[in-house]
Specification:
22% strand, alpha+beta, 2 domains, hydrolase activity, hydrolase, DUF7586, 11 helices, 8-stranded antiparallel sheet, Beta-lactam-related, Beta-lactamase, 24% helix
Length: 460
Amino acid sequence: MISPHETLLPSTARALLHRVAVAQSEGRAPSLVGAVVRGGRLVWSGARSCTEDDVPDADTQYRIGSLTKTFTAVLVLRLRDAGLLDLSDPLDKHLSGTGVGEVTIAQLLCHSAGLAAESPAPWWERTPGSLRPGLADVLGERPLLHPAGRRHHYSNTGYTLLGSLIAAVRGRPWEEVLRNELLEPLGMRRTSCAPQVPHASGWAVHPWADAVMHEPAVDLGLMAPAGQLWSTAADLGRFAAFLLQGDERVLGADSVREMRTASAPSEPGEWDSTYGLGLQIVRRSGRTLIGHTGSLPGFVACLWADAEEGVAAVVLANATSGPLPAVVAADLVRIVVDAEPRFPEPWRPMPEVDEALLNLTGAWYWGTSAFRLKLVADRGLELYPLSGHGRGSRFRARPDGTWAGLDGYFAGETLRAVHCPEGRLVHLDLGSFVFTREPYDPAGGVPGGVDDRGWGALPL
């Protein structure tokens, strides 16, 4: 039997190539590469070029700009998971002398530290990093524009600080830490700080004529953690698979899920876009995509992944503007998901059932609102309103016999089963809310008590 992950249907592959061709033509890009990941591996790639003699492929390097920030964020989360820092720590605890040491590491990760978006002139993306040899040169005289933690304000200087933080804690350059702790474990041998053959050249396309001009490719120096990297569609496919599944050699699944969780407020009018810990989170065509966009003079890039469907797409082009990789990558995901819906995992019974936990399942009532409690794998529970509307969550079992909320309104809250001294189950306690087997069960320990007259008709 052929696995549904092994290949795409010819019609799906043609639709993907057609979308790439339209993007290259209408976006007037010298070249454009697209790739799709499904089931943890690359299942399709395609490219179009303005010359038949030099058509790129999934192994051709392009500059990926701010996609670099996600790599930097992974390295910070690794420090946290190793116990070397806490995301709530002020920067000054680990990197002193910046002048903005009161902002937290989490705020820097999700761009809510209030820092300026760019470094002082000259334009850092087209000038060598040697013009900004120290953090003071990157931050400038007025590094803070907004109160920390109050709003999302995208900041390249913030990720420069995170790169310096990584170097300070590890005692090694950011580039070395990146290579040893992320690129090599994931097998990303074609991702580097400097271009490696074969690589695309960066071009600017004239807005009013089909003419091109070469763009400089400079070393960004201290600002490298914000946008330095060169990579390929194949390597970014490996990175996308990691962002969907995690990899214990780099970052576990729980920490990757944490990165994918919204951590910064959206700007007014942008409710379809927010930011996690180094990851953009957007809504497109009714689905949630995580990843990052990137651009530097001569290049644009995007990686989007649909965690629910297990599908990701990468788009790389060598033009300063014109192609819209964020739109194209979202379209590549949509084409695959719509044409070839994901096969659900086969239903299988649990290998063993705890009778005490089974007794918790069924209908429960919070006041007069009906809920159902279901037992799932690994002693987990799911609690959802029977009406289909209202508050619900999944819960993970703790060693002490309670459960921790994983999502929804009750994320992080504690669910416990309350028994009477004789051992009879009385009610469920969820963050102080009492759930009983009957609506306002007199024997269920309902706070405030239950009227002795019970249920009856409304007096006229």
